[in-house]
Amino acid sequence: MRKGDSSDMKKIGTMAIFSLILALLLYSVFELTGEEESTGGEYDVSGNTSQEGTSIVPEGAHEGIEVGDEAPNMPVETLEGETTDINAYKGKPVILNIWATWCPPCKEEMPEMQKFHEKYGEDVTVLAVNATSTEDSPENAKNFVDKENFTFETVLDSDDQLSEKYQTFSVPASYFINSDGTIHSRKFGPMTYEYMIEKMKELE
Fold it and tell me: What residue ranges in 18-93 does DSSP mark as E strands?
């Protein structure tokens, strides 16, 4: 074998080894990325409501009540301190949204809810249920709503009865309820104005 041929063979061998290492690295990155996506990875709480799945969800969270079920009727407290319940809003479609002031995606979607309420509030009730038992202070919800001048219906789930009955372990969580009180659909993660309009057209 000539000296030039030997040099060429060494170059080919080196390139082959380099290609193999690169392929292994790319495969490892792909596997790690796929595993992160399948297990949830890190939740994006940047407030971009166009993204799906940006709710804050603990490991092993249940998906909640099923579509077609009767919406559980639970007592809740208004911001004025009066007691009411979910059935009080029966008779027209309801978007029931469970939220908390410490949840960035919740706070980012609320201006979208306000915009929807101002346009379609006569046809669909926007009912924001604060997960009050998770707040540092029971006054947090009222202070936040007053500060932001939100006018949609806001109530307090002070003893966690509603969240527990709805089996809600992520926020924000929204339930789209038909006028007869049945669950039409649900969404975990923030809503956009356009998404609410789309769902409104499906409600009865």
Answer: 75-78, 83-85
Dihedral, CA of residue 153, residue 159, residue 161 and residue 166, to nearest 10: 60
pTM score, two decimals?
0.69
Element (H, E) at 174: strand 173-177
pLDDT tens-digit profile of 114-167?
Answer: 999 999 999 999 999 999 999 999 899 999 999 999 999 999 998 888 888 887
What is the per-residue pLDDT for 168?
73
Q: Tell me the residue ranges of DSSP E strands in 2-106.
A: 75-78, 83-85, 94-99
Structure tokens at 71: 């919406």
Residue linked to tokens 């292994």: 24
Question: DSSP assignment of 91-112, as one string?
Answer: TS-EEEEEE-TT-HHHHHHHHH
**CA distances (Å), 201 to each of 123, 166, 196, in order?**
11, 24, 9
169 in Cβ contact with 158 (< 8 Å): no
In Å, what is the CA distance from 103 to each residue of 45, 96, 133?
8, 17, 14
Question: How far apart, in whole angstroms, are the C-alpha atoms of residue 79 and residue 177?
Answer: 22
Q: Which residues contact 187 (CB under 8 A, 6 or more apart)?
A: 173, 174, 176, 195, 199
